[in-house]
């Protein structure tokens, strides 16, 4: 199913798709490299389990068995949230779930043509701080509608305009198309914040999973290109490197809704060449991170990407970056946008919003 890739990090990706019962590779530095925040329960809590069970009942097929086009049609965790709300007899309208925030879909110029964006605006006259938000989906699936819950929640919680972009997806658009679009969206927000009730002096970056990677990578690009620095970076369970033999990849190889074979499938479709996965825009732990603004990392305790967050936190601290991180032990990947039905998501959004507001205030 996967192409043969030769570089060390890519070979590790493919090795990671094999035996799912292997023990984590011993690491003499584990005690010092894994922060206490990375402790995981290993089991989804009751609310999380209900969401996963509901998602399973929607009949989705294993992503690695599908083409990208087919994968984009599969049920999503957002669909499971909607199903639970309907079963509870609750209104699923965004205006009811997150009152006080309106949204408008439009396009902005991108490197290869128009980019669709959804702009969330809190009630009031502004000017509001601005958050450029990048959705998840391994750079292959996902869109602004699927990740509406996280973006809309941040708009409400941080009292900020949020610009959520549908960047180009792989494999139709290989790396670095996604990162190019992410940077272009940030540049657009800096130049056009005032036209959307935003304050151009206060523009932050945020994203989930692949989008959590894009948020950090865009901040790194801003430093390198001497652009205005983002006020803050929020990185939610980010992809931070391409080795799928880390302790959490091994421990949660069969986790839901994200597992190790899915991540190898995502990486394989994203990379145009073996060297791409070692590029510091994907392998953030090898990037030049010095000079970044404050970073907040949100992690899920039952997630193959938990070790990625460990490594990213360690690398940021080593570079002298201010970092604060929290891990929700009984939550899984994708939990952040589930505030309508999940207490952990409400807590995580409040934590992230408070961090953003503190940076905006400064």
Account of the protein in words:
The chain is of the alpha/beta class and 362 residues long. It has a single domain, classed as Rossmann fold (3-Layer(aba) Sandwich), CATH 3.40.50. 37% of the residues lie in helices and 18% in strands. It contains 13 helices and 8 strands. Helix 7 (148-158) links the parallel strand 3 (128-134) and strand 4. The longest helix is centred in the last third of the chain and has 19 residues, at 343-361. The protein is globular. The model is unreliable at 1-39 (pLDDT under 50).
Q: Secondary-structure map with pairings?
A:
Blueprint: H1 8-15, H2 30-33, H3 46-57, H4 68-71, H5 77-87, H6 94-97, E1 101-110, E2 113-122, E3 128-134, H7 148-158, E4 161-165, H8 177-192, E5 198-208, H9 210-224, E6 233-236, H10 247-251, H11 260-270, E7 295-302, H12 306-318, E8 323-332, H13 343-361
Helix pairs in contact: 3-5, 7-13, 8-9
Summarize the structure.
The protein has 13 helices and eight strands. It is of the alpha/beta class. The protein has one domain: Rossmann fold.
The average pLDDT score comes to: 91
- The whole-angstrom Rg is 19 Å
The order of strands across the largest sheet is: 1-2-4-3-5-6-7-8
Low-pLDDT windows of residues: 1-39
Number of domains: 1
Identify the CATH class: Alpha Beta
Overall CATH architecture: 3-Layer(aba) Sandwich
């Amino acid at each position: 199913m996967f192409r043969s890739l030769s570089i060390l990090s890519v070979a590790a990706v493919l090795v990671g798709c094999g035996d799912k019962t292997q023990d984590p590779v011993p690491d003499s530095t584990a005690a010092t490299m894994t922060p206490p925040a990375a402790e995981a329960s290993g089991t989804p809590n009751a609310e999380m389990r209900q969401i996963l069970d509901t998602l399973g009942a929607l009949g989705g097929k294993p992503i690695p068995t599908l083409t990208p086009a087919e994968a984009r049609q599969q049920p999503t965790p957002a669909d499971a949230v909607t199903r639970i709300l309907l079963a509870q007899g609750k209104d699923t309208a965004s205006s009811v779930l997150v009152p006080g925030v309106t949204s408008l879909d439009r396009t902005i110029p991108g490197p290869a043509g128009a980019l669709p964006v959804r702009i969330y605006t809190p009630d009031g006259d502004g000017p509001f701080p601005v958050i450029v938000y990048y959705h998840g989906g391994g750079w292959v699936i996902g869109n602004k509608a699927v990740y509406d819950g996280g973006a809309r929640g941040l708009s409400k919680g941080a009292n900020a305009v949020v610009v959520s972009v549908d960047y180009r997806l792989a494999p139709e658009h290989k790396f670095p198309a996604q990162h190019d679009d992410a940077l272009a969206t940030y540049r657009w927000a800096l130049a056009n914040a005032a036209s959307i009730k935003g304050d151009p002096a206060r523009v932050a970056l945020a994203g989930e999973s692949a989008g959590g990677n894009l948020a950090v990578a865009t901040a790194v690009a801003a430093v390198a290109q001497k652009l205005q620095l983002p006020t803050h970076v929020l990185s939610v369970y980010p992809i931070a490197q391409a080795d799928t033999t880390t302790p959490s990849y091994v421990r949660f190889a069969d986790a839901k809704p994200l597992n190790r074979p899915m991540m190898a499938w995502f990486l394989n479709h994203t990379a145009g060449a073996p060297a791409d996965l070692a590029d510091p825009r994907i392998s953030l732990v090898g990037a030049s991170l010095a000079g970044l603004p404050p970073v907040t990392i949100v992690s899920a305790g039952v997630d193959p990407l938990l070790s990625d967050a460990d490594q990213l936190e360690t690398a940021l601290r080593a570079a002298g970056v201010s970092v604060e991180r929290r891990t929700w032990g009984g939550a899984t990947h994708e939990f952040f946008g589930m505030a309508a039905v999940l207490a952990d998501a409400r807590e995580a959004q409040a934590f992230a919003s408070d961090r953003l507001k503190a940076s905006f205030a400064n």
